[in-house]
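Tokens in:
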């Protein structure tokens, strides 16, 4: 089964980061080879067309906001996001916004669903970076051996089934086809 997705490349200006899900159709976004994400989506770019199909809004299962949310900064981009989501809703399609960030802020798109990273890793707020080692140690001291093993297994399952780019996008239809409202992943 191929998930039919719609997006609008006209919303993406040259040099702007587009949503990674669109990489098999639009190519890679500009990337710095020194960044941790460099090359992360190469395998997905090669195989993504096997389980996703880019199509018109009328026949799409979901509408993908074309910009990665981390690229949205000004009033014009915010207005474009709201217009895109409103047109998807008018067509009866759920809309999805991708945000490649570790931000805990809620997106100004309602309602949203966000992966709760704090369930899978030790979280250190910016204001406490000088205590990072201490916070990590405290976290681990509070876990029993069994809890630590269960957390490791849970994290591994999460990685294998949802985080690895190929796994995420090949399972994306399970998330996208159950949506009724905008969601951020």
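Residues out:
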């Amino acid at each position: 089964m191929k998930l039919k997705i719609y997006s609008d490349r006209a919303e993406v200006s040259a040099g702007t980061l587009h949503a990674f899900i669109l990489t098999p159709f639009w190519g890679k976004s500009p990337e710095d080879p020194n960044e941790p994400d460099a090359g992360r989506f190469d395998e997905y770019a090669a195989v993504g067309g096997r389980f996703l199909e880019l199509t018109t809004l009328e026949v799409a299962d979901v509408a993908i906001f074309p910009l990665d949310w981390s690229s949205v900064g000004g009033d014009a981009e915010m207005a474009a996001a709201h217009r895109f989501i409103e047109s998807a809703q008018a067509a009866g399609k759920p809309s999805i916004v991708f945000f490649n960030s570790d931000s805990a802020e809620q997106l100004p798109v309602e309602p949203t669903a966000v992966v709760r990273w704090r369930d899978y890793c030790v979280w250190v707020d910016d204001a406490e970076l000088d205590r990072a080692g201490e916070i990590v140690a405290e976290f681990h001291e509070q876990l029993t051996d069994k809890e630590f093993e269960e957390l490791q297994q849970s994290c591994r399952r999460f990685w294998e089934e949802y985080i690895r780019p190929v796994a995420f996008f090949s399972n994306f239809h399970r998330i996208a086809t159950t949506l009724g409202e905008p969601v951020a992943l």
